[in-house]
Amino acid sequence: MDVKIEESWKSKLSPEFNKPYFSELTSFVKKAYTTSTVYPPPANIFKAFDLCPFEQAEVVILGQDPYHGPRQANGLCFSVSEGVALPPSLLNIYKELSADLHIPLQELTKTGDLSRWAQQGVLLLNATLTVKAHAAGSHQGKGWEEFTDAAIAALSSQREHLVFMLWGNYAKRKGEHIDRSRHLVLESAHPSPLSAYNGFFGSKPFSKANSYLISHSKKPIDWR
């Protein structure tokens, strides 16, 4: 099966494309886009991979579903396109980033587009890459989780000294098999308003990530 995804990821994930689950997933997704409103736009389904090739990934942030409101989902977890109002979780991410690295909050909140992170090596990966409009979790259990598990496994086993940010119980479960002898895993509560005060605020993931990268002779991420 010819999947339109960045070439290095296409090479790493090619075994998945020939498995029965992926054929079933493809059929489901194609039908969903023709019979209902689905996000993100089809061209952005694999945007997280397209902007962050396999060998360039240095930090992985795991999300759950794409945003399910109009114009929000753009293929990068927690990110929204230019001109779209900041969702509450992203605003909380910016609040923690501002406190952690002493960046003025008003500088960060000018845009919710996190493409600039992705282009520096931050893989902004949702576990499920599509969702029906206004129906959170509607495309879970269809095969996306197996596909994104394969991506995480490839990074864990074939790269060294990456930083994985696991925010919330869902991300923590998805990251259970990351080789922690090879990588830094940062776990905290989810940045949503329901849980951010239970351990996300004050967790300082951005400074910890950069300190780890620098300690392994890697370039830190400019999180602005």
What this model shows, in words?
- The chain is α/β, with parallel strands linked by helices and 224 residues long.
- Helix content is 38%, strand content 11%.
- A 4-stranded parallel β-sheet has the order 3-2-5-6.
- Helix 1 packs across helix 7.
- It is globular and about 45 Å long.
- The model has no long low-confidence stretch (mean pLDDT 97).
Number of strands: 6
| Main sheet properties | 4 strands, parallel
Pick out the low-confidence regions. Answer: none
Broad structural category: alpha/beta
Order of the strands making up the biggest sheet: 3-2-5-6
Radius of gyration: 17 Å
Beta-strand content bin: 5-15%
Q: What would the principal axes of the Cα set say about the shape?
A: globular
Number of helices: 9
Helix content: 25-40%
> Could you state the order of secondary-structure elements as H and E?
HHEHEHHHEEHEHEH
> Overall pLDDT, averaged?
97
Distance between the termini: 38 Å
Quick structural overview:
With 224 residues, this protein is α/β, with parallel strands linked by helices.
Task: Give keywords.
224 residues, 9 helices, alpha/beta, 38% helix
Provide the fold topology:
Layout: H1 7-17, H2 20-35, E1 38-39, H3 47-51, E2 59-63, H4 88-101, H5 105-108, H6 115-118, E3 122-126, E4 131-132, H7 144-158, E5 163-167, H8 169-174, E6 184-188, H9 205-215
Parallel strand pairs: 2-3, 2-5, 5-6
Antiparallel strand pairs: 1-4
